[in-house]
Amino acid sequence: MRDLPRLPSSPGFWRSPLRGPWFTSVLGLVLLVGVTVLFVTGLVSYAAYNPGLSPVNDTTPDKGLLGFYLFAWPTGPVWLYRLTQGVHVTLGITLIPVLLAKLWSVVPKLFALPPARSLAHALERVSLLLLVGGGLFEFTTGVLNVQLEYVFPGSFYPLHFYGAWVFFAAFVAHAVLKAPAAVRNVRRRGRRTGELVSPRPDLPTVSRRGALWFVAGGSLLLFVTTAGQSIGGVLRRTALLAPHGGPDPGTGPNGFQINKTAAYAGITPADTHQDAWRLVVTGRTGTVRLTRAELLRLPLHSSALPIACVEGWSTADQWWRGVRLRDLAALVGYEDTPPDVFVESLQRHGAFRHTALRSNQAADPRSLLALYVNGEDLSPDHGYPARVIVPAAPGVMNTKWVARLTFGDL
């Protein structure tokens, strides 16, 4: 018997009987739908930061023409960002087994020789390199950011943003070329010809359908152990692989999820003591300085709003009570429609110490400078003495430990 090939560039090196056009095509069509949803929800997430409003919101300042789709982020429905970002993160994690199985199914192509048989073949190999490399890069950086939160300080957003465009461009080119053939391959279930089929396959230990069920089972397991962090309720306890899965981190009115603690942000009791803290509000007619006691004498309003974070986790609706942003704008000369507002925090460490909100966000009657949550004072970790809460905004836009509000052109 002749020796088996030892080089991965030889077709006989890859002997799995599972590889073939049908198996690869099924996985490819799943990714065609899934990756498209991931890309769209990722762009939506970036738009939610309102990067065109102010440089402090623009985590990718050199985006150029890639920001053509940006639009003013709405304030309703209040669960909008909770839904879009929950889908983005949960779907991304759920698709990991499908992506890995797809790469495994086509790995012989990556070692095929010669590297380029023609100019067209060379372009196809380059696009394949961008597709594989871009896919691994996007999924890896996304998972690391979700699990470790601040593993990419100041760099995750541009890396993930530009990587997404490179990956999706290669993905679209590949889909245009391969999707028609993939549909035909799925319909021809018995077809066992093609360059992915081993000329000397091993005996099968599992059927192709069994292998697909194995991949689907892995995806289902990841879904069950992740999705609860954004769905909430009792399902949160099933989100074992999510950074904010499991039960609420505390008890009482303030016992719900947070990212940044007061200690992490460098907030001390002296900063927030009633004798030291003042809210500075600046606008058309000048500047007003308010103590917390003075804020409490203003008309107070309530809003039931969740907090939804870019890492995919969210809270249930919490009952916030405080002064409407539009009423604070009226104190400094904007009695009709409040303009954009620049929000500054006492926070000393970490990202998003400042943020800007659009006029539609400031004008929404549910947008508050919150002083209470669920009937009690804010805890230090939830932003005492005052924090912003805005419907449908990413969690980092709901600035904690607010020190100054500047209404006007930003």
TrEMBL record:
The keyword Signal does not apply. The keyword Transmembrane applies. Residues 268-407 form the Oxidoreductase molybdopterin-binding domain. Keywords: Membrane, Transmembrane, Transmembrane helix. The chain crosses the membrane at residues 21-49, 87-107, 128-148, 160-183, 210-228. PANTHER family: BLL0505 PROTEIN, PROTEIN-METHIONINE-SULFOXIDE REDUCTASE. This is Oxidoreductase molybdopterin-binding domain-containing protein.
